[in-house]
Amino acid sequence: SLYVSEYFSQSAQKLSFYSWYGNAKLFHFHVPEDTVLLRWLLQASRGKGPECTSMEITVHFRHGAPPVINPLGTRFPANATIRPSYNISITLSSAVQNTTFVNVTTPAAGDWFIAAHLPEAAGRIEVKGFSTPCPYMFQADMFVLRLTDMPVLEPGVPMPHTVVSPAKPLHVKVFVPKHAAGMRFQLSSCITSEQRACAVRVLLGSITLPQSFQRILTCTGSINCSLALESPPWEKWLQIMVESLGTGNASVKVEMLASFTVCRPGSTSSFLNFISLNQSQAVARPGAAGSSAPAAGEAPHNSSSQRGSCLQSQPVVREDLDVVSVRYRLLNGPSVPVNTRSPTLLLLNLNTGMDSGGSLVVNLLLNKTSVSLTNATVVACVSAASPVLSLNATRNCSTAFSQGYPLSVSTSSAEAMLIVLYPQTDDWFLSLQLLCPKGQGECTTAEAKVTVFSYLTPCFNDCGPYGQCSLLRRHGYLYAGCSCKAGWGGWSCTDDTKAQSVGAQNLATLLLTLSNLMFLPAIAVAVYRYYLVEASVYTYTMFFSTFYHACDQPGVAVMCIMDYDTLQYCDFLGSVVSIWVTILCMARVKKILKYVLFILGTLLIAMSLQLDRRGVWNMMGPCLFALVIMVTAWVHHGAKRKHCYPSSWKRWVFYLLPGITLAFIAISVYAFMETNENYYYTHSIWHVLVACSVAFLLPPRDKHKKPWAWSQKLTCRYQICQNDREELYAVT
């Protein structure tokens, strides 16, 4: 046999602490057909700075779709299927780099996904620039060993093969046709080259993670051994590996036979249904009113064909709506007939390669009036790759190499829902059959009507009122995840264990918005001292900070007067410009120079905020530059007057020192104390402290200016005018 090795690599990604699925870094690989060995090379590394500590990286694997993970231990939505992913942990302790290998023999062909993340996020809000986070990098590479000339086992034809040695197993494959109800594999004529009793082990199927349903058959001696499989995967190659269990290097000769039992589907009248679908979607045209095509729900059924078939296939149309958004429409109408003779089968096509990043929702609704038997139950099974063709009370909704998802409806419980999170790329099948209690002879002729609603959505229920559905991308692959807020958690933001109450949400909104009213004293002081430009800036800041925080709330207490991004930009701009004009006002420079600096500084601040809105130097840069100007001006005034400036000790004790203290406390709270849990009151404290410090730091008005005298300023009143003009008379 000729083996070919191939290598696939993807660029490294920087890992993040986990708070929602978007923090997990996804790697997407495609394993080719006839692969007999898959080896993952996982490389993790961290920075060398003192901020880098020991860290544990969790890596999840899954075949066919991104892994469904739950590192936070939150609840999933009701009716959702939860099957834990296969994962390993990589520890970065004293070593800067860690290399780990993961081997998978006879892996399933198709898409494979790896997701890696750090432990749960601490929840602390870090200001960009104040601290340097440690970079943790992760890279996944894939090696595959592929057999180029794998022998093909033809159905119904015995084929002799030889296992060369225990170290070199035999690999063959057989193609499973469509509508295969069962497969029987038989191994016979087993003999070693030393004419001893042989012992071999046969592995049927491929390994899929997190769960593998590979079937194992052990044969000893010359006795024939066989294995029967129900519902093998349709239209796929099935790998078979035979390995010798002998101790020596003797070869083993065996004869293998694979046979299939094919299920004949019943008539579905798909051509008439296709015509009726086109007529229902067509726009009314002149002359079309007289057409007499049968309605979609009145397609004729061949009763003799139904009795002789083992399944009734209902035609389904896949309607693509958007990215990771599909709706399935039944051509015979939303209701399908279900009986006891054979299962009703619906095909849900999810094999485009771009459908595995959402949630598959299947909803069943039983028409109670259509079931004459009170104790009858309609059982259903949703499975991938092949349908379940024998639905009864003892089966657990499993096929040859996969485990399906059971559903049931009855007159007592007429509705059932199933949510498959990240369904694997494949053909999915919905099988329905009517089951009746024993002793009811009329059950053979009974028929139930079940309404089926099935669709693929990026996020179930659009993540609810306390979540946001985000479309994520890794290279060309798109998948969706829910980002929860207001303390809610879970896959679809349905876990209210740590959720904020409505009262707490209202309190948070009131604190963050009303705390901006503390700018009113600063505005009053600025107006009283004739600093009208500064007062205008404080008013601007108070207005946009109030409505930005009213729009920024995660819960139901939200009010947005304009676009969120605009409100955020105006809030950040007003905050930085307020600090800029306050420090320049304290510098007591000439008016013309002060106003020029006001305008230039505001323009530069607006530009820097557009480049990086959350950078710490957007605030620290203007502050430091303004402080340099202020200190220079104060030194100049002090040298000119031959004493310290400001000269009054009362000014230092009662105004400057309290204002500076409040400003430093505000910066400490903003930079080091804010977390996701205490944000609403720590940030409110920041608002109060900053506003109060501005009121203390504003300098007194110029001595030559008098206080506001409104009676002198307002001239709109009656006045008695006296004409003092002297008249000149000419004497002739």
Automatic annotation (TrEMBL):
Ranges of residues in domain EGF-like: 455-494
Task: Report disulfide bridges, numbered on this chain.
Answer: C459-C469, C484-C493
Amino acid composition bias (Low complexity), ranges on this chain = 288-300
Question: Keyword set for this entry?
Answer: Cell membrane, Disulfide bond, EGF-like domain, Membrane, Transmembrane, Transmembrane helix
* TM annotation in the entry: 507-531, 592-611, 617-636, 652-673, 679-698
Could you tell me which InterPro entries the record lists for this protein? EGF, NGX6/PGAP6/MYMK
Where is region (Disordered) located? 288-313
Q: How does it sit in the membrane?
A: Multi-pass membrane protein
Q: Superkingdom, according to UniProt?
A: Eukaryota
Q: What protein family is recorded?
A: Belongs to the TMEM8 family.
Listed name of the protein:
TMM8A factor
